[in-house]
Amino acid sequence: MAILRTVRGDVDSDGLGHIQPHEHVLSHIGGTTRQQGTALASEEPIRLDNYYEVRRHHSAFDMRVDDIEDAVQELERYREAGGSVIVDATSIGLGRNPRGLVEVAERTGLHVIMGSGWYHRDYHPEDLRHRSRDQLATQIRDEVTTGVGDTGVRAGLIGEIGLSWPVDPVEDRVLRAAVDAHLDTGAALMIHPGRAPEAPADAMARVREETSSTDRVVMSHIDRTLFSLDDMLTLADTGCYLEFDLFGQESSYYPYADIDMPNDAMRLHHIRALCDRGHRDRILLSQDICFRSHLQRYGGEGYAHLLRNVVPLMLRRGFDKDDVTALTVDNPRRMLEVTP
C-alpha cells in the first residue's frame, strides 16, 4: 500500500484531493547573514501605502512567515476552497518548525507534509562544511524514517535541496547525500536550482551520476529558470518532474536576479505545450508562498489562488477536467507516495 508521510503520521494516498507540492507554511527566508536581492531592512507592518514596495523588494517583516495563527487562518481558506494536502518544502536553514506544522495540521484538518535536507549555501549552518556525505545522508534518512531530532515528526519529502549558481562544493555534497537518502527511503527528492538557465540540467547531471532512476526527482522553479519550450523539453527528457511553482507571482521585477518572470497565463501556455508533447504526467503546479505579502491577510493571493483563479483559467485555456485532475491531484500524489 502506498502512503503519504505527513507530520501527523502516514495516510493512505487513495482518495486524496488537490495537492500543492511546494509551499512554505512556517518559514523565515530572511534568516541569513547575507542580504538576498533588494531586501528592505524595514520591520514595518504591511499597509496599503507600502504594499507595492514590500511586494516588489520584500522587507524584513515580509520575509517571516512564521506565525501559527496566520498559517491556520490562511490554510483554512485553502481547505475550504478544496485543498487536501499541502507540502511545506521548508528545508534546514529556512526556519523549519516541525512541532508548529503539527499544530497547524491538527487545527486545520489538512494533511501537511514536511521537507528535509538543507537550503542553499547562504543558509547553511556553519558546521555543514565539515560534515561528510554519509553524515548528511544519515540525518536526512533519519528525519524521513524516525523524525526530526526528538520531535518524532517525520519528513515526507527530501527537499527543497538548495543549489546556487555556480554550485558550491558543499551544496554538491548535500545534493549527493540527498540522492543517497532518496534511494534508501523512497521519499521524493525536490531540488531548488540556481538562478541560471543552465542550472536545472547541471543539477540533473549530478543526480544522474549517482542514479539512473530520476522519476521521483522534482526540479522546482521552472518558471523563473527556463523560458523556452525547447529548454523545458530537454529537461523533461531527463525524467524528472517539472514544477511550475510560482503561480500568483506575476511581477516582472524579480528581486533576486535579472529575470523576466512570466504571468500565470504564460505559465499555462508552456504547460499546455508540454502536455501536448506527452509530458502531462511529469508536471507539478504550486505557488511557493514564502512571504507575508503572499498571504490573503496581508493583501496577497493566498494558498487557494490555484484553486480559485488558476483552475478556472485552465478550463478556459484548453485544459479539460482530466488535465486538471492529473496536474493537481494525480501527479503530486504519485510523486509523494512512499511504501512504508
Keywords:
single chain; 340 residues; alpha/beta; TIM Barrel; five-stranded parallel sheet; three-stranded parallel sheet; 12 strands; hydrolase; Aryldialkylphosphatase; Metal_Hydrolase
Task: Walk me through the structure.
Belongs to the metallo-dependent hydrolases superfamily. Phosphotriesterase family. Keywords: Hydrolase, Metal-binding. This protein has 340 residues and is an alpha/beta fold. The protein has a single domain (16-336), classed as TIM Barrel, CATH 3.20.20.140. The protein has 10 helices and 12 strands. The protein has helices at residues 51-57, 68-81, 98-108, 133-145, 169-185, 199-210, 229-236, 264-276, 305-316, 321-336, and strands at residues 3-6, 9-12, 18-23, 27-28, 64-65, 83-88, 111-114, 158-162, 189-192, 217-219, 241-244, 283-285. It has a 5-stranded parallel β-sheet. Strands 3-6-7 form a 3-stranded parallel β-sheet. Strands 1-2 form a two-stranded antiparallel sheet.
